[in-house]
Design a protein that fits this description.
Length: 194
């Protein structure tokens, strides 16, 4: 069970005549008192409140924290002056122009610079188109997987575009898989009907 930090009471016969641990004056019957919950040291309530804790045992857990004397202020690093179009990355604090490649994080503003089409999206669409003419059972699923990977990369990097190409690759790849599955089902149904 956890004891209370301080017990506040009117000084009674038990504590009468004991010195306050802060001011040294005697405690008198009827004074407002504060008895430390950890070391049982008596104090005037006003002294306890003014000093913010116990002055009994030097190892008492209710002693006020020691104040640092002549402590130097914490020095903060000076930030460089920003040029037009630059800002600080909200995650790592680096100076960036719209996008932090370290954190893969947009800066304070959305990226409005030039974009290039993702090579992954182009490759996924190539697999999907070749799959229409041959090896669709292999290239269709590959187009779906590559299209999904391209969408993730585009979502992480605002300098890339081509989400439409990746979506087209996924759709065409899905159609190729459906066509191949339909073909297999028709073959199996033809064999079973004989």
């Amino acid at each position: 069970m956890m004891s209370e930090t301080v017990r506040r009471l009117k000084i009674n016969k038990r504590y009468e005549g004991l010195p306050c641990r802060w001011c040294g004056q005697l405690l008198l019957v009827g004074d407002d008192g504060a008895i430390c919950g950890a070391c049982e040291s008596p104090h005037h309530a006003a002294c306890w409140d003014k000093q913010n804790g116990c002055n009994g045992d030097p190892a008492c857990v209710n002693r006020p924290l020691a104040q640092l004397q002549n402590a130097r202020p914490v020095e903060t690093a000076t930030r460089p002056i920003l040029k037009p179009g630059e800002s600080y990355c909200p995650t790592c604090g680096d100076v960036v122009t719209d996008y932090c490649f370290r954190c893969q994080n947009l800066a304070a503003t959305d990226y409005t610079g030039p974009k290039q089409t993702s090579a992954e999206a182009k490759g996924a669409l190539r697999y999907a188109i070749f799959g229409l003419f041959c090896f669709g059972f292999v290239l269709g699923p590959l187009a779906i997987v590559r299209g999904t990977a391209a969408k993730k990369t585009i979502a992480q990097n605002p300098r890339l575009e081509g989400e439409g190409l990746a979506t087209a690759a996924q759709i065409i790849g899905g159609l190729e898989v459906l066509i191949y599955v339909g073909y297999l089902v028709s073959l199996i149904a033809g064999v079973n009907s004989r």
